Amino acid sequence: MARETPSQTAGPYVHIGLMPNAAGIFGIYGQDIGAVMVSDPDAVLTGCIYDGDGAPLTDAVIEVWQADIGAFGRSAADAETGEYRFETRRAEDAFLTLWIIARGINIGLHTRAYWPGQVPDLPGLDGARAQTMVMREVGPGAFRFDIHLQGPEETVFLDV
Asked: 123 partner at 20 to 30 Å CA-CA among 11, 70, 78, 157?
């Protein structure tokens, strides 16, 4: 008979195993997989994941999917700044789906990043909370999406 087991955190080394170049370990892969989501990007998404104290996570891994263009990407947080970066194409009617794993997170977190001007349409989600799922345009073709794990600016996470 199978028994239920406790979930495990990703631990402090997940980014090293999945994204060694981003962790400063070179020579294993020429380029970490998923750094460029599409061959002809017209948008760059950057951001940072912040813990409950407002400190950036420097050992997180983020995966992104964009259904309308069949894009997938993976990025590790920069080991010094916690910043992540994706190159993709902007699809006006689509959102990005993000999955976050890092130390202290027992089960991967799911959220969405909507392009500026889009309104997240999820039942029971009020306007202020919905704004935590909308990217900011920071320049031509440049977008920012910061993720807050806890606190007053906590990003909406979905149970999928």
From this structure: 70
Place of tokens 């940072």: 48
Under a CB-based contact definition with an 8 Å cutoff, are residues 112 and 120 in contact? yes
Q: Name the pTM for this structure.
A: 0.83
What is d(CA 49, CA 149) in angstroms, rounded to the nearest whole number?
Answer: 7
Whether the Cβ atoms of residue 77 and residue 57 lie closer than 8 Å to each other? yes
Distance of CA 9 to the CA centre of its chain: 17
Tokens of residue 146, six digits:
């910061």
Residues 6+ away with beta carbon under 8 Å from 18: 32, 61, 74, 76
Taking only the tens place, the pLDDT of each residue in 67-77 is: 777 777 878 78
